[in-house]
Specification:
alpha+beta
């Protein structure tokens, strides 16, 4: 094999999301002459970013105090907020909700646009940002430290066998490498396992967020109106709820968050999202409007009990790659940014393994995560009981650890034969849409002829376990329709439509046997979101 081309940097960051870009900017503020590089697998910054999104301005104010003078794409401030309990036909606004669910001072943003602006600020400081570039494999030194990454080829599969290669790779070396890939990062997963960073921590928990962007037919809502829903259609089937955010009187973002530790293997978060929109409260709002965007992404929600050790020799984990979202506040962008800033400051001090812990425990980010550490465990008890106990916990100052321990999401399924199938959702092409329609709105593209980026460790397990015991849950939980069982007589076979993949990572998280491994396809492939 010919020798790889080599690049050297002081700081290398994988992922151009809020955590990675905040880290790059902060490091250059501290060390203006340093060589800093950010790798982004999407065709452009923001192409793979999906978030609700509400932004607490705390981290942005600290990072770039002049942002208000720099045309930052920060949307309207939250002007009116409601929390709504839904039944199949009714919507009841709660007369009161606890302080941790209040978003006074927050702003509604489109994360892709915000990160494009942050990327421009980083480049103005001298940061190199390479888009459509996959960090495919970690690069370890003789001392065992992470020395950087290999780009551009598949490397080895999960069994250590040589994988196929689509283009020559480049070895990018750095004194510090920060992983900011978002939830269930490809490299982050490997690094956590390699260094045993999750030892002694509770199992990480995740959710799947599905979002749509709509332009309404008639002005309905004032700038900055926010409402969150719980109850129908998820009810007792799964944790989570809906959101609707108004950028102006016609442009709104709405979506459904489904916590992935649910028991019913036939539950489809995608179909529940479509069902949710048929509620009279939403159907009336959306009537005659146009859906102009669609996206889906997993979220890391375990909080402080599941947060792994985030540093290791040669670098660290930041943002959702580690799990810094403050789930109880229904927010995470500010936490991701602050984690990147703290890690950049630790790296700037020069130690081979950054001293992140000292800064973290002294920060407002740690205070937020510590105060809300019981949230995810409490939600396992249901929205009413768990919500009441968690609210009481907040009133008492969160002084005791009482919540049930977190259990891995993929261990929750029960046998399909014990459950009633979920009723289908009709797709009318105006309010509710097929997966194919949604993929068009997501701009999904994958070049032909490259190796499949979804690996089955055991090709027979779906046919011997997933299909007979659980009814093929991958056909339900995947929002893109990647997985399909074809039954010829009594002999099913699983077909993977990898070109549909939205890179949400739900299959990597939720497969009951942890048999599916998501790996990045070639750079630039996948969704091409516009301002989600």
């Amino acid at each position: 094999m010919p020798e790889r081309e080599r690049l050297d940097y002081e700081l290398l960051i994988v992922g151009a999301g809020p955590a990675g870009l905040a880290a790059a900017i902060r490091y250059k503020q501290l060390r203006p002459q340093a060589m800093v590089c950010v790798l982004e697998k999407g065709i452009s910054v923001g192409a793979h970013l999906v978030s609700g999104a509400l932004l607490d301005l705390h981290a942005l104010d600290e990072l770039l105090p002049d942002w208000r003078l720099s045309a930052a794409p920060v949307g309207p401030a939250v002007a009116r907020e409601r929390h709504v309990h839904l039944t199949a036909r009714r919507a009841r606004t709660l007369p009161w909700w606890p302080s941790f669910l209040r978003h006074d001072g927050a702003h509604i943003v489109r994360l892709g646009l915000l990160c494009q602006w942050l990327a421009a600020r980083a480049e103005a400081l001298g940061v190199d940002i390479f888009t459509a570039t996959v960090a495919s494999e970690p690069l370890f030194g003789a001392d065992g430290a992470l020395n950087g990454v290999l780009t551009g080829d598949f490397g080895l599969d999960e069994r250590g066998r040589p994988g196929a290669r689509w283009q020559p790779g480049i070895a990018i070396h750095a004194r510090h490498t920060l992983l900011a890939e978002g939830s269930r990062g490809h490299l982050g997963r490997q690094i956590i396992r390699h260094f045993g960073l999750d030892a002694g921590r509770q199992s990480q928990n995740y959710a799947l967020g599905i979002k749509e962007l709509w332009r309404l037919s008639q002005p309905h809502r004032a700038n900055g109106e926010v409402w969150h829903s719980f109850g129908w259609p998820l009810g007792g089937l799964a944790g989570g709820g809906g959101f609707c955010y108004a950028f102006d009187d016609q442009l709104i973002a709405l979506g459904l968050i489904t916590h992935l530790g649910y028991r019913h293997p036939g539950l489809s978060p995608y179909d529940e999202m479509q069902r949710w929109k048929t509620h009279p409260h939403l159907a009336t709002l959306l009537a005659g409007g146009e859906r102009i965007g669609f996206g889906a992404r997993s979220l890391t929600l375990g909080g402080l009990p599941a947060l792994p050790r985030v540093t290791f020799p040669g670098g660290g984990l930041i943002g959702d790659d580690a799990g810094f979202a403050v789930a109880a506040r229904l927010m995470g962008i500010h936490a991701a940014m602050k984690s990147g800033m703290l890690m950049a400051e630790a790296c700037a001090d020069g130690g081979r393994e950054p001293d992140f812990a000292t800064r973290f425990t002294a920060s407002w980010l740690y205070d937020e995560l510590w105060r809300t550490r019981a949230f995810k465990g409490a939600m396992r008890l249901g929205p009413w009981l768990g919500g009441a106990l968690f609210t009481l916990d907040q009133w008492l100052g969160s002084v005791i650890d009482w919540a049930p321990p977190l259990r891995a999401d993929h261990l929750q399924f029960v046998a399909a034969r014990r459950l009633r199938p979920r009723p289908p959702v009709a797709k009318d092409g105006q309010l509710t849409f097929t997966r194919t329609d949604s993929l068009r709105r997501a701009g999904v593209r994958h070049a032909e002829g490259q190796p499949g980026h979804l690996l089955l460790r055991d090709a027979q397990r779906p046919l011997t376990v997933n299909w007979p015991r659980y009814g093929g849950p991958e056909t339900h939980y995947c929002p893109a329709g990647v997985y399909e069982y074809l039954v010829d007589g009594d002999q099913p076979r699983l077909v993977l439509h990898t070109a549909h993949c939205l890179h949400c990572k739900t299959c990597d998280i939720l497969d009951p046997g942890q048999n599916i491994v998501w790996r990045p396809p070639q750079g630039g492939d996948g969704p091409r979101y516009v301002g989600l």
